[in-house]
Design a protein that fits this description.
The complex is a heterodimer of chains A (about 350) and B (about 300). Chain A is built from nine helices and 20 strands. Chain A is of the alpha+beta class and about 350 residues long. Chain A folds into two domains: about 230 residues, Rossmann fold (3-Layer(aba) Sandwich); about 110 residues, OB fold (Dihydrolipoamide Acetyltransferase, E2P), CATH 2.40.50. In chain B, a hairpin with a 2-residue loop joins strand 1 and strand 2. In chain B, helix 2 packs across helix 14, helix 4 packs antiparallel against helix 5 and helix 9 crosses helix 10. Classes of the chains: A alpha+beta (about 350), B mainly alpha (about 300).
Chain lengths: ~350, ~300
C-alpha cells in the first residue's frame, strides 16, 4: 500500500513539465505585448490565461503555436526549445476562436486533414477519424459540411480535428465565445471532462473569469503583457497576489488603512497582522462582511441598494465616504435589509482579508 | 385626442408605381433595368436574328420582301472558312483565359499573403490599366512590339538578335495584347473571393501539419474555385468576342469571329451572314460558359445546402 503510494508520488513528481514558457517577451513595433512571461505547465494540466483584452494572452498563445516569434525567451515542449521549429512541425493543436473549420471539407474531411498532411496511411486515417469523432460524440455527422452544423457541433469538430493528431499541448483561444450563454456552461464542463479523460495538457485563453474558474487547474492572470499570478482557482480567489488580481476576480471592497506596529486596524475595530509597511489598501470580499442591526460598533452605514440574486442577496451599503459590497445567503427566517435601513458592518473573518501596499 | 387623417381613398398612379418600385418585393425593383434591357438589347437582337433567317432585298434603305430562310445558316455551317475562324477565336480565347489564370493566380495569392503595401501596390497596378481605354493600351503594345519598337530596340541593343523580331501582325502579338488587357478581369474576382475567407484557415492548416504548398493546394485553391470560375467566365467571354485587339495587333489580316463579322457588316455588306455568325458566336460562347459553370459547381459543392 505504502509502496504503491510512493510510486504514485514519484510518478507525480516525474510528470515532468510538458510546456515551459521561459521569460518570453514580444514587441509589436515599440509596443511591448509580452513582458518576461514565464509559466510551467505539467502533464495533464489545464491552465487558463485570463485577462482583459489587450493583456497579451492571445499573443502568448500564438507564440506557443508558432504563429508569432517572440524576441526573447524560450518556449520548451518536453524540454526542447520550439522557437526554431516551424508552425507545421510543432506538437501543438489549436482550437481557434472562430473554429476555422475548412468550409469545403466535410466533418470527416476536416478531422482527416491533419492525418493526411502527416502522411498517415489511409486505413489508419479512417480508424483514427472514427475514434476522434466518437470521443466528441459526433458519429453520424461524417458527411455534413461545417455550414450545416450548430455552433456547439462546430466546436466539437474543431476539437476532434486537433485531438486526432494527439498533440502534446492543446491550445484553445476563447473557444466558447461563439456559443450562446446557456450552451457555454454545459460545453465548459464537457470540454474539461473530455480533456481530463484523454489526459491532455491544455492552455485556454479567456477573458471570462467564470469560465477560467470552471475550467482550470491553474489560472494565470495577465495584465499589460505581464503575468500577475499563476495559481489554482481557489487560491486566485482567496489569496490574490496583487490588488489587480483581487479586483479582477470577483467583487472586492478596498479600504485605505495605515500599518502600525505590524498591524492594520479594520473599520469595525478588529486588527489584522501584516508584513506591509506604510499606507495600504485592505481588500475585503463581500461575503466576508456582515450587516447587523445598528449597535454601538464603530462602522455604521445605510443600505443604499438591495438586489436578490437567486440564493444570494447583494447589498450596497454606504459607510462613510465609500460604498461597500456585502453578500448574504438568503435564508427563510432572516428578514433581508431594505433600502434605507441603518446597519452596522462587521468583518466576519479578519484573516480572510488581504493587505496590499498603496499603489 | 388628435384626429388621424383618413388615408386617401385612391393613390395617384405615380405614387402607386413609385411605391411598388421601391418596395423591394418581387420583380418590381428590377423593372426599370428590365425595360432598358428589352429596349436596347432584346429588340435589336430579334431584329438582327430576323436578318439572319430570312431572304430580303433592300430598296431605298428599306427592307422589303422579307421571307423566312435557313439558307444563310446552311452556308455558314458548310463553309470551312467559318469553321477555322471560329476555331481560331476559340483557341485564342481559351489560351488567353488559361494564361490569365496562370499569371493572375500568383498575383491574387500574393495579395492574400502580402502586407498592407503589397496589397495596395497590387490593387493599383491591377486597376490602373482599367482606367485607360482598351484601344490606347492596344496602341501602346504596337509601340512596344513594333518592328522598331521598344522591345526590338532593346534586344538589338543588347546584341541578342541581329534582325528585329516580327511580332506585330502575328498570333503572338494578339495573344500578348489579349492577356494584358484581360488580366485585371481575372485578378479582381480572384482577390475578392480569396480575401473573403477567414485568415485563420491558413493558420489552422499549418497547425495541422500542412506546408505552405499543402495549404495552397488543399485550402486556398479549393476555396478560390468560385473566383476562378468567375474570372475564367469573364475573361473567356470578353476575349472570345473581342474585336479591338485582333484588329489592331493582328494588322487586319488576323481574322477571328468578331473581326470577320465586322468586315461582313462594313465591307462586304453581308448582313445575313454577319447575323448568323453573331448568333453562332453567342451560342458557342454560352456552351463554354455552361461548361465553366458546371466545372465550378463541381468544385463548390460545399457552398450548397447552407443553413441560415
Amino acid at each position: 500500500m505504502t509502496l504503491a503510494r510512493d510510486l504514485s508520488l514519484a510518478s507525480a513528481a516525474d510528470a515532468a513539465q510538458v510546456l515551459r514558457i521561459d521569460k518570453v517577451s514580444k514587441r509589436f513595433g515599440t509596443f511591448t505585448v509580452l513582458d518576461d512571461c514565464s509559466i510551467d505547465v505539467s502533464e495533464g494540466e489545464i491552465v487558463t490565461l485570463l485577462g482583459s483584452s489587450g493583456c497579451g494572452k492571445t499573443t502568448l498563445l500564438r507564440c506557443i503555436a508558432g504563429f508569432l516569434t517572440p524576441e526573447k525567451g524560450a518556449i520548451l515542449i518536453d524540454g526542447r526549445n520550439t522557437i526554431p521549429v516551424p508552425v507545421n512541425r510543432r506538437p501543438v493543436g489549436v482550437v481557434f476562436q472562430s473554429y476555422a473549420l475548412f468550409p469545403h471539407l466535410t466533418v470527416e474531411g476536416n478531422v482527416a486533414y491533419g492525418l493526411k498532411m502527416h502522411g498517415v496511411p489511409r486505413r489508419e486515417i479512417a480508424r483514427r477519424v472514427a475514434d476522434a469523432l466518437a470521443s466528441v460524440s459526433l458519429r453520424g455527422f461524417e458527411t455534413r459540411y461545417p455550414s450545416q452544423l450548430s455552433g456547439g457541433q462546430q466546436q466539437r469538430v474543431a476539437i476532434a480535428r486537433v485531438l486526432v493528431l494527439e498533440p502534446r499541448v492543446l491550445l484553445l483561444d476563447e473557444p466558447f465565445n461563439a456559443l450562446d450563454a446557456k450552451l457555454r456552461g454545459t460545453m465548459q464542463v464537457e470540454l474539461r471532462e473530455l480533456i481530463k479523460r484523454l489526459g491532455m495538457t491544455a492552455i485556454f485563453v479567456t477573458h471570462d473569469q467564470e469560465e477560467a474558474l470552471t475550467l482550470s487547474d491553474r489560472i494565470a492572470v495577465m495584465r499589460g503583457g505581464r503575468i500577475e499570478q499563476v495559481a489554482p482557482p481557489d487560491e486566485i480567489f482567496d489569496r490574490p497576489a496583487t490588488a489587480y488580481v483581487a479586483d479582477f476576480i470577483g467583487l472586492s471592497n478596498f479600504i485605505p488603512a495605515e500599518v502600525r506596529d505590524g498591524k492594520v486596524t479594520l473599520p469595525d475595530g478588529q486588527t489584522l497582522a501584516t508584513e506591509a509597511q506604510g499606507p495600504v489598501r485592505v481588500m475585503i470580499r463581500p461575503h466576508n462582511l456582515r450587516a447587523i442591526p445598528q449597535g454601538p460598533g464603530p462602522w455604521q452605514g445605510q443600505v443604499r441598494f438591495q438586489r436578490n440574486v437567486g440564493p444570494l442577496i447583494e447589498y450596497t451599503i454606504t459607510a462613510g465616504q465609500s460604498d461597500m459590497h456585502v453578500v448574504a445567503l438568503r435564508r427563510d427566517r432572516i428578514r433581508p435589509w431594505g433600502e434605507g435601513d441603518a446597519v452596522s458592518l462587521e468583518v466576519i473573518d479578519p484573516e480572510f482579508c488581504k493587505v496590499y501596499p498603496e499603489a | 385626442m388628435v384626429a388621424i387623417p383618413a388615408p386617401p381613398d385612391r393613390q395617384k398612379p405615380v405614387d402607386w408605381l413609385m411605391d411598388k418600385l421601391l418596395s423591394g418585393q418581387g420583380v418590381w425593383p428590377a423593372v426599370p433595368a428590365i425595360l432598358i434591357l428589352v429596349i436596347v438589347a432584346v429588340i435589336p437582337f430579334v431584329m438582327l436574328l430576323s436578318l439572319g433567317f430570312s431572304d430580303f432585298s433592300v430598296s431605298r434603305g428599306q427592307i422589303i420582301d422579307q421571307t423566312f430562310s435557313m439558307r444563310h445558316l446552311g452556308n455558314v455551317l458548310t463553309d470551312p472558312l467559318y469553321w477555322t475562324t471560329f476555331q481560331r477565336s476559340m483557341s485564342l480565347a481559351l489560351s488567353t483565359t488559361a494564361i490569365c489564370l496562370l499569371l493572375g493566380y500568383p498575383v491574387a495569392y500574393l495579395f492574400l499573403i502580402g502586407g498592407r503595401w503589397t496589397r495596395r501596390a497590387i490593387l493599383i497596378v491591377t486597376i490602373a490599366p482599367l482606367l485607360t481605354s482598351g484601344i490606347v493600351r492596344t496602341y501602346a503594345w504596337l509601340v512596344i512590339l513594333g518592328g522598331r519598337g521598344v522591345l526590338n530596340n532593346a534586344l538589338l541593343g543588347m546584341g541578342l538578335i541581329d534582325q528585329p523580331l516580327r511580332i506585330v501582325n502575328t498570333h503572338w502579338a494578339v495573344l500578348i495584347g489579349m492577356v494584358q488587357i484581360h488580366l485585371p478581369v481575372m485578378i479582381l474576382p480572384l482577390i475578392a473571393v480569396m480575401s473573403r475567407h477567414d485568415r485563420s484557415l491558413e493558420e489552422a492548416s499549418a497547425n495541422l501539419g500542412a506546408s505552405r504548398m499543402g495549404t495552397l493546394r488543399h485550402v486556398i485553391l479549393p476555396l478560390s474555385a468560385p473566383g476562378i470560375g468567375t474570372g475564367a467566365a469573364l475573361v473567356f467571354t470578353l476575349s472570345y468576342t473581342t474585336f479591338v485587339v485582333p484588329q489592331l495587333l493582328g494588322g487586319g489580316n488576323y481574322l477571328n469571329a468578331a473581326t470577320m463579322i465586322y468586315e461582313q457588316v462594313v465591307y462586304s455588306l453581308e448582313w445575313s451572314k454577319a447575323s448568323v455568325m453573331s448568333l453562332l458566336l453567342m451560342a458557342s460562347c454560352l456552351v463554354v460558359l455552361v461548361g465553366i459553370a458546371l466545372v465550378t459547381n463541381h468544385f463548390t459543392r460545399w457552398t450548397r445546402g447552407r443553413q441560415g
